[in-house]
Write a structure and sequence with these properties.
globular; about 180 residues; alpha/beta; two-stranded antiparallel sheet; 5-stranded mixed beta sheet
Length: about 180
């Protein structure tokens, strides 16, 4: 893990990308690209994808101060290929396939991937876990997804400024055919 810290930085944020997605997620998969024919259960999570879109855009601004990486349980070739298809150019992508990182840090519970952000801090030669978003999980209202990192998601914040608010029937999608 210490190799993920760039010289001169002391903090590292690792987002657990639900790829494969949670088994209860029945939103459509990718409409095009290499993953269009992938079974839904093996595909990427639309909500995680939307969050990572924002992290990818923010990464050049964050890089001089801290490190941000995304880790998924899917094999690294799938993660990198999906990232390329998604247009991610900045975020570092990793795979936790074959190790226990996700399970050890709240990104996997009973074999299911969970969205999770962990922050680690390096002090000299010691890396310590500083913060984890599981502390933000709270019971959701019926029919609502947990929004443990809503403060990081620009679209949720933007919706909060509008009279319509976040709405009750909108969900992140991998493809917005309505708006092309």
């Amino acid at each position: 893990m210490s190799e993920l810290f760039r010289s001169g930085t002391a903090s590292l944020a690792i987002y657990n990308f639900m790829f494969p997605r949670h088994s209860s997620d029945d939103r459509p998969g990718p409409a095009r690209g290499e993953f269009a024919d992938l079974p839904l259960a093996e595909g990427p999570c639309p909500s995680c994808t939307a969050l990572i879109d924002g992290l990818d855009a923010a990464e050049p601004h964050v890089a001089p101060h801290a490190n941000v990486v995304v880790v998924a349980r899917a094999p690294i070739d799938r993660v990198v290929t999906f990232g390329r298809e998604q247009g991610w150019r900045n975020i570092r992508l990793l795979s936790s396939a074959g190790n226990s990182f996700a399970r050890d840090y709240g990104g996997e519970i009973d074999g299911e991937q969970m969205p999770m952000l962990n922050v680690f801090h390096r002090d000299g030669g010691v890396v310590r876990h500083f913060w984890g978003s599981e502390l933000l999980y709270a019971p959701s209202d019926p029919g609502q997804d947990p929004r443990h990192l809503g403060t990081l998601e620009p679209f949720w914040n933007l919706f909060d400024f509008m009279p319509e608010g976040r709405g009750v029937d909108w969900e992140e999608q991998l493809d917005y055919a309505c708006c092309r």
